[in-house]
Amino acid sequence: SELHAGLAVATANRDVRAVVLTHTGKVFCAGADLSEATGADPTVGPRGLVELQKAIVDCTKPVIAVIDGHARAGGLGLIGAADLAVAGPAATFAFTEVRLGLAPAVISLPLRPKLEPRAASRYYLTGEVFDAAEAERIGLITRAAASAEDTGEVLKGLLDALRQGSPQGLAESKRLANAEVVRSFQRDADELVQLSARLFGSAEAQEGMRAFLEKRPARWVR
Question: In angstroms, rounded to a whole number, what is the distance separating the alpha carbons of residues 34 and 187?
């Protein structure tokens, strides 16, 4: 709700040229709280994530994600929805869903148009952890920074460049750049919400989430 409100304020304020989405501590976003992932309506969580990602895409101001910690699952969807993304040396990324009996369903809406296809297959299927340099190579982020200081410098450079753009020019350029992402939401959002809900309610996913919370291998691990 705070992010939705912040995006609405930024959109309404003509003095705002860009929005920076970042974090404190060692985690950018770890995705859903698995201890609370079995509500009465299994579509509520995935639909909420669709709406949050869409709010980032629909914001008329460029959104820059700045990551210098761990990003997992749903957190990667937020990065994918952002227009630009900078990651520092402490950043790590993983599509962990496959190891929980799930799939990166609704986060694929902003990600599939941006990720290198072979890399998407690899990391969707393996759940491997990768670093900022690899994230840049596969199209998940814009720039990998060598140090925390460099992260700040890269961000400053992007913000300085955006300040040169007119509000109208930025809004329309963002709309053009996001055309495929918007089509992805229009075409696939409802189907992927249902897929996510079905997977969360499955026996395999229940086992995967229990195994994660109990810090043990899932029964299918060989």
Answer: 28
pLDDT 10s digits, 190-214: 999 999 999 999 999 999 999 999 9
How many Cα atoms are found within 13 Å in the side-chain-facing hemisphere of 179?
Answer: 4
pLDDT digits (tens, 9 = 90+) for 134-146: 999 999 999 999 9
Nearest to 45 by CA among 58, 28, 32, 30: 32
Active-site residue list: 97
Give me Rg for the CA atoms of the chain. 17
CA dist., res. 9 & res. 16, Å (int): 9
Tokens of 47: 């639909």
Q: Which residues, 6+ apart, have CB-to-CB distance to 83 below 8 Å?
A: 62, 63, 64, 174, 177, 178
Q: Quick one: tokens of 1?
A: 């709700």
2-31+41-146+167-213 in CATH: which number? 3.90.226.10
pLDDT of residue 1: 76
The amino acid that residue 35 corresponds to is: S
